[in-house]
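If you are new to this repository, start here. Below is one unmodified record pulled from the training split, so you can see the exact layout before writing a loader.
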Amino acid sequence: MDLLIIGGGAAGMMAAGKAAEEGAEVSLIEKMPSLGRKLLITGKGRCNVTNMGAREAFFNNINSNPKFFYSAFDSFNNYDLVSFLEDLGVKTRVERGDRVFPQSDDSMEVLKAFQRYLKKTGVTIKRNIKVLEVIREEGRVKGVKTEEGEVIPSAGVIIATGGASYPATGSTGDGYQMAYKLGHTIIPLRPGLVPLEIKEDWVKELQGLSLKNVSLEAYSGEKLLDSQFGEMLFTHFGVSGPITLSLSNQVIDALEKGRKVTLALNLKPALSLEQLDRRIQRDFEKYSRKQFKNSLKELLPQKLIPVVIALSGLPEEKPVNQINKEERISLAKLLTRINLTVDKSRTLKEAIINRGGVKVKEVNPKTMESKLLKNLYFAGEVLDIDPNTGGYNLQIAFSTGYVAGKAAAENIYSNP
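And here is the target side for that same chain:
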């Protein structure tokens, strides 16, 4: 066997198909019963395959080791990926924030396209097989050993096992153990793009409430860590949703330093305080004969009204025509800044990705080959590259998989 790919996720499938396309005899080994389980749940099942932002914007959304990814991105970028998918029959569209989804809004379409690609290129797929270790001899890869004790010889190995987030999909950190045994440094794992637990009890009353077109700022003391605009979700423990996940990495960094972190939620970021006050005045005039609790239904989601009333300190039974200007301005200020105190993040099991992984200084960025062991390659989330949400993680997986597969196939034939 020329090449073994360990892991049948996005990076592994791309690496396997590309290597086979280059002429290598390839086997893709997956420990789960089926390929691409994590791919199926990305983008809430819609599969946010990439982001069409400009190159500079793309790298601004990679928080750790963006320079390492330069070469892989230039070899197979977001436009290349869209063309690749279209050649496989998957039409895509660009949505808000330059995020790219299949037009079908179905991640299964993407997975089936990759399965066709693997079949077309002649990749052998081995399911329900867990690799325990990579075998080395005289400074180069010689094959792998499975949980059943089987030794599968090969001229090269690509580790594309994913991270340690969403373990039910098969991402249980196996690749880190393999890499560590081979002498690679593993940057400690932490959750990335993860929901946050909030101390205030009232968030539980909002469980299931999704807010769109709101802004969320994260503060460490008076210092603004980051600000995001878009959609968020309240849960039984705190907050989640795209903008929460995007803020989470910087929040975790601050919490780990022992700092208190507060989130500031602006329910009406498109309006200045004066514009919002005029809007409230119009509603109060319309409902002038109503009680305060019955005057906010056009301004706020029903589930949020009791919480806002409680936070405002105004009696819910108070007639609207008795609310004075000072109280009205105070309400407007509240709607532009509701504070939430972060307790902690959720665990790796609930994170979209993990931060940390194989130290990239020990990997050649142009080929994804290990600098420590010949014919050993890495692709995807097993590497210490930490992106934001928005399609960046899958692009990293596809790009590094493409580069690793191409380089491994070429290297095997040039250095038998």
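Two things worth knowing about this chain: The chain has a mean pLDDT of 95. The first strand starts at residue 3 and ends at 6.
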